[in-house]
Amino acid sequence: MKSNFNIKLYVLLPLTLIVSAILWFLPLECFGIEGLTELQQRTMAVFAFAALMWLFEIIAPWATSVTTIVILLFAVSDKGFVSPDDGVAVGYREILSSFADPVIMLFLGGFVLAICANKVGIDKYLARTMLRVFGTRPHFILLGLLLVNGVFSMFMSNTATAAMMLAFLAPMLAKMPEQGNGRVALALAIPIAANIGGLGTPIGTPPNAIAL
Questions:
Q1: What are phi and psi of 90, to 5 degrees?
Q2: Which end of the chain is more exposed for a tag (fewer CB within 10 A), N or C?
Q3: Cβ neighbours of residue 208 under 8 Å, at least 6 residues apart?
Q4: Are residues 110 and 93 part of one domain?
Q5: What is the pLDDT of residue 64?
Q6: Is the pLDDT of residue 133 over 90?
Q7: Which 8-state DSSP code applies to residue 59?
Q8: What is the pTM of this model?
Q9: pLDDT for 45-104, tens place per residue?
Q10: How far apart are alpha carbons 81 and 72 in whole angstroms?
């Protein structure tokens, strides 16, 4: 008989809540940090809650992220339901702006573009069509792979592009002889081209937008 006991629900979730509650309600003197405020204590408690929820994967990671935003708005903002006793609070607009920063929106746009292209299959169709132009000679195939992968990485996540191209070329790599450098060259061309192409646009890779 299959047991219905859910360790995440009945063990890990209560453990997470207990740890967070201890950090929330523990007297400030117990932390041994000079000048620690109630606002900082609550922030540490929310941080511990989010970290444990992500670590144990009790709920979906995105759900934990949204829950963390709501808790911060209620607990540490100047419009929250539970304002700190010392009267120091963070403006709710400031809290929300950190999650709706233009860089984050840029990341989301790039991720959505990659997901849509993968869902409708246009990524593989374009890759197959563009590679056909370079013929069947190994050197031209390698050149085509570098160019196509680099172009795709400019408008999609370079990690997603590398994974897509690797899956696309897996049957081809399996048919190639083990002797020689052909398989190695094609396999190495995928991450190299993805990294180079990812430097071309702000959405190619997250560090680009952060640097900008």
A1: -95, 140
A2: N
A3: 198, 199, 201, 202
A4: no
A5: 93
A6: no
A7: S
A8: 0.55
A9: 999 999 999 999 999 998 998 899 889 888 888 877 766 655 567 787 888 777 777 777
A10: 11
Where is the domain boundary, 51, 76, 100?
100
Rg (CA), the chain: 25
| Domain with 129 in it | 104-211
CB 45 within 8 A of CB 26: no
Bridge partners (DSSP) of residue 90 are 77
List of E strands, the chain: none
The DSSP letter of residue 11 is: I
pLDDT 10s digits, 189-207:
888 998 998 888 887 877 8
Same structural domain, 75 and 156: no
CB atoms within 10 A of CB 12: 17
Q: For residue 188, which of 169, 211, 207 has the smallest C-alpha distance?
A: 169
What is the mean pLDDT of the segment spanning 9-32?
Answer: 92
Are residue 176 and residue 150 in the same domain, yes or no?
Answer: yes
